[in-house]
Specification:
This protein has one domain. 22% of the residues are buried. The chain has 6 helices and no strands. Helix 3 packs antiparallel against helix 4. The protein is mostly helical. The chain is elongated.
Length: 165
């Protein structure tokens, strides 16, 4: 497929559709917005990330049940980057480093940089990147700037019901 990757409809709606072009919500398959249980293969840190970030993305309407595998990869990338950071910090705290320690630290640093790039790419898929975040506009439901409650429909669900009416 050539050209720029299309932006998910949920992000178009959250960002306010600045071009005012019609958004086709009827022909695009719509996942069930929600968070399934964390996969068993995730380690403890990845599961903590799943439980802390997942509900927020569900509230934004950018995480559906069919996105669980991709979100699990994001959680794993987060966990691995934290682990690598710990290993690098432990090596840096040593008073003297051998040549083997320096090579090991260089490998960890390289792996962490690749992991950070993967994390940024995956996070952008869910609207978590700094650039994505500046484009998302959420109307507060009670004037206090809070995210919509879990019981209320997501912005995507609201737009789809408005389009059908």
């Amino acid at each position: 497929m050539k050209g720029r990757r299309p932006k998910p409809t949920a992000l178009k709606i959250l960002q306010g559709n600045p071009g005012h072009r019609p958004i086709d919500t009827l022909s695009e398959p719509q996942p069930v917005i929600g968070l399934v249980e964390a996969p068993a293969y995730l380690d403890d840190e990845a599961k903590r990330f799943w439980m802390s970030e997942g509900p927020q993305l569900v509230k934004l309407g950018t995480l559906g049940e069919s996105d669980a595998g991709l979100f699990a990869l994001l959680c794993q990338a987060h966990s691995r980057n934290l682990w690598l950071s710990g290993r690098i910090d432990a090596l840096r705290k040593r008073k003297t480093l051998t040549a083997a320690d320096e090579r090991k630290m260089a490998r960890f640093d390289s792996a962490q940089q690749r992991g950070a790039a993967l994390y940024a790419k995956l996070a952008a898929e869910f609207g978590m990147g700094a650039v994505s975040r500046t484009r998302i506009r959420i109307k507060p439901n009670d004037g206090q700037g809070e995210l919509p409650l879990e019981d209320s429909p997501s912005p995507l669900q609201r737009s789809m019901s408005a389009a059908r009416a």
